[in-house]
Amino acid sequence: MSQIKIETDSEFIQRLPLVHELVRQEAKKHSIDLSDYYFAYCYLDDDECSVTYYDNETGDDSFYLEFELKSNPPICTTVSINGE
Q1: Minimal CA–CA distance to 55: which of 32, 74, 38?
Q2: For the chain, what is the mean pLDDT?
Q3: Taking 80 as the threshold, does the pLDDT of residue 72 lie above it?
Q4: Distance from the Cα of residue 58 to its chain's centroid
Q5: How many Å apart are CA 49 and CA 40, to the nearest integer?
Q6: H helices within 1-84, ranges in order?
Q7: pLDDT tens-digit series, residues 40-69
Q8: Measured in whole angstroms, how far is the alpha carbon of residue 9 from the centre of its chain?
Q9: Left if phi > 0, otherwise alpha if psi is -120 to 50, otherwise beta: which for 11?
Q10: Which distant-in-sequence residues (6+ apart) come within 8 Å of 26 by Cβ?
Q11: Least confident of 4-8, 17-21, 33-37, 61-65
Q12: 22 in helix, strand or coil?
């Protein structure tokens, strides 16, 4: 059985709480109850981030966000709810 070595980037990990807080703020602005969704995936690099949540009942790509992280403070550039 082979082992997989996972390298962690501490700067990347340190930014995850920021991303989580940005998602919570946008969800609140758009009256989204995050307990109705499950986290699907996150793309994070130096300048931007995108986060996707799926609806618990349908599994659709229901809540999608993009953030510009190089701005201070970071700004949300895209919000898509149920594909709109």
Answers
A1: 38
A2: 84
A3: yes
A4: 19
A5: 14
A6: 10-29
A7: 888 888 889 999 999 888 887 689 999 998
A8: 18
A9: alpha
A10: 32, 65, 76, 79
A11: 4-8
A12: helix
